[in-house]
Design brief:
The protein is α+β, with helices and mostly antiparallel strands. The chain contains two helices and five strands; from the N terminus they run ββαβββα. The strands form two sheets. It has a three-stranded antiparallel β-sheet with strand order 3-4-5, with no helix packed on it. It is globular and about 40 Å long. GO terms for molecular function: glutaminyl-peptide cyclotransferase activity.
Length: 90
C-alpha cells in the first residue's frame, strides 16, 4: 500500500534497495485522477526496460532507475512500510 518497490536479491533474499515512485502517483492525483495502489511492474528483458502502473491508473510508465542524489526526507520505513502518504479513494 505504498508507492515503493523493494529490490530483493534472488540469490539470498536480502533487500538491496528501494525504488521510490511517489512522484508518479502525486502527479496523477494533482491532475485530478482518482487512483489506487501501485501494483503493476513489468520487465522487458529484450529491451532492458521497466514499466509500472497501478490500479485505476490511467497511464503506463516506462521508468529508468538511477541512484538518489539527495538524502531522503524521512526514513525509508516511514515512506514505504507504513502505507501511502496520500489518502486515495479506493
Amino acid at each position: 500500500m505504498s508507492d515503493c518497490i523493494v529490490r530483493i536479491s534472488p540469490s539470498d533474499g536480502t533487500v538491496t534497495g528501494w525504488v521510490l515512485l511517489n512522484e508518479l502517483s502525486k502527479g496523477l492525483i494533482r491532475d485530478g485522477y482518482i487512483i489506487d495502489v501501485l501494483n503493476g511492474i513489468a520487465w522487458d528483458a529484450d529491451n532492458d526496460r521497466i514499466f509500472v502502473t497501478g490500479k485505476l491508473w490511467p497511464k503506463l510508465y516506462e521508468i529508468k532507475l538511477h541512484p538518489r542524489k539527495k538524502p531522503l526526507p524521512h526514513p525509508i520505513e516511514r515512506m514505504c512500510l507504513q502505507g501511502p502518504a496520500n489518502p486515495r479513494v479506493m
